[in-house]
Structures are given as C-alpha cells and as structure tokens.
Amino acid sequence: MKPIYIYLSLLSVLLLASCSDNENKQTEISTNNDMRIISLMPSNTEIIAELGAAESLAGITVTDNYPETLDENLARFDTFALDEETMMALNPTHIISHESNHDGNQKIIDNVVSNTGAELLIVDDASQIDEIYSTITDIGEFLHKDAEAETLNRELRREVTSIQEEYSGQTPDDKALILISTTPDVYIAGSETFIDSYLEILNIDNVFQDVNGYPAVTSEDLIAREPGKVISTLGIDNKGLTQELNSISGLEGTPITRPENQCTPDPDVISRPGPRFTEGLAAIAECVYE
C-alpha cells in the first residue's frame, strides 16, 4: 500500500503544481494581453505607451496626438462630454482618469466601472516635476508594469541630471515670463505650477514667482515686472508671438517682443506632465542659455 500511497501523493503534488503554473500563466495573460485601457488624459496615454502598453489601449481623448503610432481606430472621447454608451461598449478592464477633470465625469465613470467591472485609477494632478515620477509609478503598478515604470523613472532622472550639469553655474541676466494665453485675457504661470518647476531646475527666475497658480494679469502687471525672456505655451512661432505681444497695450517694442528673447517650444512637451518633459526642459535651457 505504501508505494501506491506515495505514488498518489506525488501525482497530487504534480497536478497542483501544474494547476498553479496554469493559473499564473492565465494571470500573466490577463494582465498583459487582455487589458482594454481607456485613458482620459494625453500625458497618461504617453506614459502608458512608454511602459509598453500602447497595444492595450481601447480609448483615448480627442486631444491625444502622441505617440504618433497610436492606432487611428481607437475610440476618441471628449472629456468635457464623455460618451457613456461608447465607453460601455469598449468593455474596459482599466480606466485611467485624472484629478483635473474627474469630478465632472465621476458619475459616468462610476457607471461604467459598475457595469463593466473595470479597475479605476485617478491620477493626481502633478504640480512639480518630481510628481511625474510618482504618476509613472502609480500607472506602472496599476497596469502591472512595475519594472518598466522603475526603468523609465531612472532614465528620466538621468536625463534631468545631465541637463542640469550641462548648464550648471550659469545664471541668466533676466527673469522669464511663462505665457499661457493672451486672449481674451493674459494668463501666466506663477509658482507652485508644473511649468515653473522647469525654471527652478534650470536656475531661471520666474518674473511672477510671488504669484501662485495660473492667474490672469493686466498689461500694467507685465510692464511693471519687466521680463527679459518669454516662454510661450501658445504653440505659435516667433513672428506670431511678436504680433500677439505687440497687440497688448504698453508692451509694444519691449524686450520680450523681440525673437531673440522668445522661447517657443512644442507646448505639449512643456505642459504635459508625462515622459517627454525632459525634452521640454532641454528646449527651455537651450533657448535661455544659448
């Protein structure tokens, strides 16, 4: 009896091990190939792609334009008017929302989560570059891409250090204005903003450092601050920026209306708290210091 008992015991162990292996494989497949992700913020979509999960995207926003290899057949959502029916039809497994627009969409998203069983991650709004690393970590954990997130953060930190070292010891003569919009009102970026953290890293003084957030300012405010450089997020070239600034009463002919004092980087790389922020950092540094 003993040999038979031992044989049956060994067989049971092998079967259990086999079942365990199969379960692990099924989990791996479920967490990688079977994910259907809806991303409701372009910067998060860029992170998802960098983590190697672009093929798992099922829906993105109407403003998503990077990476350029995004499937043109992906469902597109207007985050100001989410289409609940389309979201339901995608049967998502993961939804990545964002603090900046989640409150307005919470009811629809909660309904979709309730009816599909999708997992939900609400990404915090990054107000500092350091918080991008946390966002990448959070999304990596949510999508079971922990190792990829760690590698990406390590590479981004290395790039930031390299840029800082390249321009270390340099200090610009003039303070910079971060221009967000000119019409119908002039909006700028002050301290405690994501874009201002670029200037902090590069040792550039923000002419509105004593103001928090993204306030509207008057032409008198701009004239009084006497900015020597302007960093624009308008997405227009120097000629267009000069025209915009000259149209503001009192700014005609001031230093920031001249192209040599204007920085016009791709607005997406300096305004999106995603993995391309180092491109924005390098663009601003090159414009101000070279």
From TrEMBL:
It holds the Pfam family Peripla_BP_2. InterPro entries: ABC_Transporter_SBP, ABC_transptr_periplasmic_BD. The keyword Ligase does not apply. Residues 1-23 form the signal peptide. Keywords: Signal. Belongs to the bacterial solute-binding protein 8 family. PANTHER family: MOLYBDATE-BINDING PROTEIN MOLA (PTHR30535:SF34), VITAMIN B12-BINDING PROTEIN (PTHR30535). This is Vitamin B12-binding protein. It comes from Jeotgalicoccus saudimassiliensis. The lineage of its organism: Bacteria, Bacillati, Bacillota, Bacilli, Bacillales.
